[in-house]
Design brief:
Blueprint lengths: L29 E9 L18 H5 L2 E6 L2 E2 L13 E2 L2 H8 L4 E3 L9 H15 L3 E2 L1 E2 L2 H5 L2 E5 L2 E9 L6 H4 L8 E2 L7 H12 L2 E7 L10 H13 L3 E5 L7 E4 L2 E4 L4 E3 L9 E10 L2 E13 L2 E4 L2 H18 L3
Parallel strand pairs: 1-2, 1-15, 2-5, 3-4, 5-6, 9-11, 11-12, 12-14
Antiparallel strand pairs: 1-16, 7-10, 8-9, 13-14, 16-17, 17-18
Organism: Kineosporia babensis
Family: Belongs to the CapA family.
Pfam families: PGA_cap
């Protein structure tokens, strides 16, 4: 099911020992799980040995698991002119895949931290690891192409894009007809059009977005406006990252929006930045059926699930945050 460039991919049942294809039960529902920012820098590099934390348990159980890969996968390249640049070895992809991750989005403000060479290495590493990447490609068509999977009779398309790019990168990082790069939500109309096209071919469209303002827990007006535009275009699930702190989530009818998942495999240490978790969304052919937040806390660079009173307190925090931000 894997592909390195973000082109259409479909999950199919594995053949049995007799060579016949064993059909999965048609339950009519699929569970999609989301984790936040992953980069394997600093203390989070310990996860390269394969132990990524207990918060990956929900991802392993999901029908489809997605995280935001906020790093180039390369040993080469030249760092771009910015304060923070991240890169990780190819075994980072193996660690993610072995811990249940099915798809990564690389559409963020660190996806091309090591320039064109880093981009080429990232695409090659994804292909070798057989871990699908979205939001990145050899051209704009590939960058906006969805990952596609049919789970229990539900056709799902997942699109990745970034609404956050440094000024110097607006031209050089944005994928065009003739330039490799990232899927940019800043290019008027492209993301909504990609959603409309996917909605015509799928039951459920998921958009994974890099947006918002760092350390700001409440969604900006830009986030709210963009979410409304994407819902109108046909997206039922919209999940965000970038702020490095948790943002609230909301449900309306058969749609769900999580404005910001916060950090996941990350070198966070501050009280707000270590708040983490996994967002579960159950969908059927008509859209969102149910959602669940699995609270976690980052310890030594890796997310650990919370239980008991700690989990209860974490849930209360998100409820309070939703009220504070005016998110129902």
């Amino acid at each position: 099911m894997a592909t390195t460039s973000p082109v259409t991919a479909t999950t199919t049942p594995e053949p049995t020992a007799t060579g016949e294809v064993e059909q999965a039960p048609e339950s009519g529902e699929a569970r999609i799980s989301f984790g936040g920012d992953v980069h394997f820098a600093g203390s989070s590099a310990a996860g390269l040995n394969g132990d990524l934390g207990t918060a990956f348990k929900p991802l392993k159980k999901a029908d489809l698991a997605i995280v935001n890969l906020e790093t180039a996968i390369t040993d080469g390249g030249v760092p771009e002119p910015k304060e923070f640049t991240f890169r990780a070895p190819a075994k980072a992809l193996t660690a993610l895949k072995e811990n249940g991750v099915d798809v990564v989005t690389v559409a963020n403000n660190h996806g091309m931290d090591y320039g064109p060479e880093g981009l080429a290495d990232t695409l090659a590493a994804g292909k070798k690891a057989k871990l699908p990447m979205i939001g990145i490609g050899e051209n704009v068509t590939e960058a906006f192409a969805p990952f596609r999977s049919t789970v229990n009779g539900v056709d799902i398309s997942v699109i990745g894009a970034t609404d956050v790019l440094d000024n110097f990168a607006l031209g050089t990082w944005t994928a065009t007809d003739s330039q490799p790069g990232l899927a940019s939500a800043k290019v008027e109309g492209l993301l909504a059009e990609a959603v409309r096209k996917a909605a015509a071919e799928s039951d459920v469209v998921v958009v994974v977005l890099h947006w918002g303002v760092e350390t700001q827990s409440c969604p900006t007006q830009r986030q709210r406006d963009l979410a409304a535009e994407l819902k109108e275009a046909g997206a039922q699930v919209i999940v965000g990252s970038h702020a490095h702190v948790l943002e609230p989530y909301e449900e309306e009818g058969n749609t769900a929006i999580h404005y910001g998942l916060g950090n996941f495999v990350f070198y966070a240490t501050k009280a707000q930045s270590i708040r983490s978790g996994v967002y579960d969304v159950v969908v059927d052919q008509d859209g969102v059926v149910d959602t669940k937040w699995n609270p976690a806390q980052i310890r030594s660079g890796r997310p650990q699930l919370l239980t008991g009173s700690d989990a209860k307190a974490a849930g209360a925090y998100l409820s309070q945050l939703a009220k504070q931000c005016g998110v129902d």
